[in-house]
Design goal:
By secondary structure, this protein is mainly alpha-helical. The chain has 7 helices and 3 strands; from the N terminus they run H-H-H-H-H-H-E-H-E-E. The protein has helices at 12-22, 30-39, 41-45, 61-73, 84-103, 119-129, 146-157, and strands spanning 137-141, 161-165, 182-185. Helix 7 links the parallel strand 1 (137-141) and strand 2 (161-165). The model is unreliable at 190-194 (pLDDT under 50).
Length: 194
């Protein structure tokens, strides 16, 4: 049986109309089409499909414009100094820290926000600074960022045990199980699957 889509002379507009007629729920994704046309129009302009979200997501046009405006409007220096340009940058950094703590419904009394170059650098800091010992344990899920798996080397070097659990949602420990000095690494979002 020949389908409508196998007809060589069918125009893309007709194929799209037919597809939407067959699958009306698809029209609910119109907001995504609008987002793509306003924030990521360069994909269509350059005939690109971007699927490498395991490496990093694309920046939107509004992000570029807002960032460019921040750079145009001020002179920002090293946040670790005390001159006027550095104080301006420090203000941006501290406002961002406060925003993140508020977003995660916590406070600086409970958590410290540390900025790193990327996930790999952040996870390396955790591996280097966690007080692993022969009495501690590292618990991982089976599906992790590659850099999470690298934390095992820090644990092993200190004689700590490392194990994987199939549970990906709390409670991560099995009932009644407690181990002091234990690092649990749970993915918030699995980069490969979303």
């Amino acid at each position: 049986m020949t389908t409508l889509y196998e007809t060589p002379q069918m125009r893309i507009e007709d194929a799209y109309a037919d597809f939407v007629a067959r699958y009306p729920a698809y029209s609910k994704t119109a907001a995504l089409d609008a987002l793509r046309s306003t924030e990521y129009s360069r994909l269509d302009e350059q005939h690109q499909v971007y699927l490498d979200y395991t490496g990093g997501s694309l920046y939107g046009e509004s992000q570029v414009q807002e960032h460019a405006e921040i750079l145009r409007a001020g002179v920002l220096g090293n946040p670790h100094s005390s001159n006027p340009t550095s104080v301006a940058m420090t203000d941006y950094v501290e406002r961002t820290r406060r925003y993140l703590l508020t977003y995660f419904n916590t406070s600086p009394d409970d958590y410290v926000v540390v900025f790193t170059q990327n996930a790999t650098a952040a996870l390396k800091l955790i591996g280097e600074s966690f007080p692993f010992s022969a009495a501690s344990r590292l618990l991982l899920t089976f599906d992790n960022h590659n850099s999470v798996n690298g934390i095992r080397e820090f644990a092993r070097a200190a004689g700590a045990g490392a194990s994987r659990r199939r549970r990906k949602r709390p409670p991560f420990l099995f009932p009644g199980e407690k181990v002091p000095n234990e690092l649990h690494v749970l993915p918030y979002v699995l980069l490969a699957v979303g």
